[in-house]
Amino acid sequence: SFRFVGAGSGDGMATALDQVMSADLGRLAAKQLDPDQLEALVETVRSELDRHRVDGVIQFDSAVWLVSARA
Asked: What are the Cα distances from residue 69, in Å, to 18, 63, 64, 65?
């Protein structure tokens, strides 16, 4: 699983929310939405992150493939 871990103590919510909202789609939303719409979006994202809180930490099931090749 992938875990958002914030600096210092805490459950990582601030770190996770910041990471989501500073990614391309979050920045685009901040430019295109009015303040009320942006606030609603942030609350939706926060709610979704909260749904993934496991044992007090925001956690997503995930997998990754690591591949290397040589020519």
From this structure: 35, 20, 16, 13
Identify the CA nearest to 46 among candidates 24, 14, 22, 70.
14
Q: Tokens at residue 35, please?
A: 């303040």
Are residues 7 and 15 in contact, defined by beta-carbon separation less than 8 angstroms?
A: yes
The total of other beta-carbon atoms located within 10 Å of residue 19's CB is 13
3-state DSSP: the chain helix, strand, coil percent, rounded to 5? 50, 10, 40
Q: How far is CA 15 from CA 9, 20, 21, 70, in A?
A: 11, 9, 10, 37
Name the pLDDT band for 66 (thresholds 50, 70, 90): confident
* pLDDT 10s digits, 3-45: 665 544 566 788 889 889 999 999 999 999 999 999 999 999 9
